Amino acid sequence: MARVSVEIENHVARVTLTRGNKMNALDPAMMQAIVEAGEGLMGDEDVRAVVLAGEGRAFCAGLDVMSFAAMAQGDPAQLLEPRTYGNANLFQQVVMVWRKLPVPVICALQGVAYGGGCQIALGADVRFAAPGTKMAVMEMKWGIVPDMGGMALLPHLTRSDVIRRLTYTATPFDAEQALGWGLVSEIVEDPLAAAMDLAEDIAGKSPSAIRAAKTLIGFAEDHPDDPDAVLLEESRVQATLIGKPHQMEVIAANLQKRKPDFG
Fold first, then answer.
1. pLDDT tens per residue across span 189-218
2. What does pTM read for this prediction?
3. What is the dihedral of CA 156, 157, 163, 167, to 10 degrees?
4. For residue 215, how many C-alpha atoms fall within 13 Å in the half-sphere facing its CB?
5. How far is 149 from 156, CA to CA, in rounded Å?
6. Given phi > 0 = left and psi -120 to 50 = alpha, else beta, which region is 75?
7. Hey, which end of the chain has fewer CB within 10 Å, N or C?
8. Which stretch of DSSP H or E encloses residue 77?
């Protein structure tokens, strides 16, 4: 069965986890399909924003328990330690591919986002959640630690004490608490509609400037103790945009009071 669908319209790619009958739980086939979906968008210049969602009553319930049992019978080090996707293994790339995409990714959450599902959501640029959505850093429930990129992402989003509490206890928390901790961007009645609206808004902006902005934000996050490097990178990136066709079209559209047309 197909695990993920990808639909592209008006420069927005809608990526949907389609294992709704299993609450979009992550088995090996689903993890591979998620990575393939993300990497398939990597070089698509027509795509300007991505919406990531799950069908049915949950975004993603986390790792399929039966898949975990099968993995534990082998040598975990041989499976986890090799870097098969640049700086990541398959499990980490399920999450990090969305952060590595050169365009913004907006995630729509409903039901639950547990374990790996929570970490996938953290890989997005923006997260909309339905009221009552439950999230959890669930790995400690199974006697393991978060290993799908969560430790690379969480320190950029929330406080150390929050990370430690959630990791040590595996206690689920609701969207309202997630909002206070910075793990959810906004709570809305229809997260998918909100995600699509934001993606369409972003898709109407300068494609080159949006891509540059995502890269620049990532650079700043990766160099928190080197403001000199960040300031220099700001200037370098800006110099690649000023006076170029996309920027000139933005200026013309503003002066003529119309939407820009980037082709």
1. 999 999 999 999 999 999 999 999 999 999
2. 0.95
3. -100
4. 13
5. 12
6. beta
7. C
8. helix 76-80
